[in-house]
Amino acid sequence: MAALNVRSVKTVAENPNLTHIPPMYAFQTLSRSVDQKISGDGAGEDEDPIPIIDLSLLTSGAHDQRSAVMQDLGNSCQEKGYFMVINHGIDEGLMNKMIDSCSQFFDLEQEEKRQYEGKHTLDPISYGTSVDASVTEVFFWRDYLRVLVHPEFHSPTKPSGFSEVLAEFTKAVRRVVRDLLGGISESLGLDSCYIDRAMDLESSLQLFGVNLYPPCPQPELAMGLPPHTDHGLLTVLMQNAVNGLQVQHKGKWVDANIISGALFVNIGDHLEVLTNGKYKSVVHRAVVNNKSTRISIAMPHGPSLDTVVSPAAELLENGCPRANYTGMKYKDYLEIQHKSKLRGKTRLDLLKI
């Protein structure tokens, strides 16, 4: 089925007579046996709260404050693989502008959006639906726009002002990521600049991905995105006021109820490799609802494309018995990920020794 002939989920959802999802969106193999709840209304929140990292204390706090936050950051990476970031320094008005601009993009006429239909993960700009509509057997209840914003900056030309907001916002997020990776380096007993240098973050790959999840008349049958892990070091997520992200922890799904104005961060595959498995990439998914449109912005941050990512030698020298992963060039890993279906949750098994 050619991607060009597939209607967007937004178009499907806006049909006033829609009461049941089309068969192609019925995720029949979905298992909810480990779920506490599926509705995005706070499952497990009281039992397993999401850690909160105050970035201002990490970057400019007193010594004892900074040490405490760094310890919290390391514990969050090791025990859960995700956390929320507050006081990150990104203006809330800019965050709202970015969400509004993304909403305006999806409101463009379909012909205007189709000019950005892409074929590959590293296409500078790619618009589409589901995951890969040309090969997907079951469609996911989402439309997406993916843009390569670093080391080269790209942007759609519409809507008006989108490019300017995108450039300012993604630059600010890049700063947050480098600050976090500095703290993560130190939490591992390494120099604060270790990951920055080893992963060549000056030329790092930064992708901007925005997902639109319209209301779904049968959310119990559909899926926004299935369980998976992310490539790269860290993924930063921001959303409108509608929840839908769930992370897996101790065999259960936990709703990521993100504080207003906060950023949600999860560990990616390549930080797991770099830390030799001490910090693990987290499995997560997106669920949908029957009331509100959710817009989420997910920004994977990786090393430079030519960086070979392998366990840090300094960590192996500090007590790890052996390397648990073999090295692979980042762009080769992305190529493998692009060619495989989003079913195995992670491609890290290819690197495990």
From TrEMBL:
SUPFAM superfamilies: Clavaminate synthase-like
Keyword match Phosphoprotein: no
A GO molecular function held by the record: metal ion binding
One of the Pfam families matching this protein, by short name: 2OG-FeII_Oxy
Domain of life from the UniProt record: Eukaryota
Domain Fe2OG dioxygenase positions: 203-303
PROSITE patterns, sorted: FE2OG_OXY
Keywords, sorted A to Z: Iron, Metal-binding, Oxidoreductase
Gene3D superfamilies: B-lactam Antibiotic, Isopenicillin N Synthase, Chain (2.60.120.330)
Record family assignment: Belongs to the iron/ascorbate-dependent oxidoreductase family.
Protein name: Protein DMR6-LIKE OXYGENASE 2-like isoform X1
Source organism per UniProt: Punica granatum (Pomegranate)
Gene symbol of the encoding locus: LOC116194270
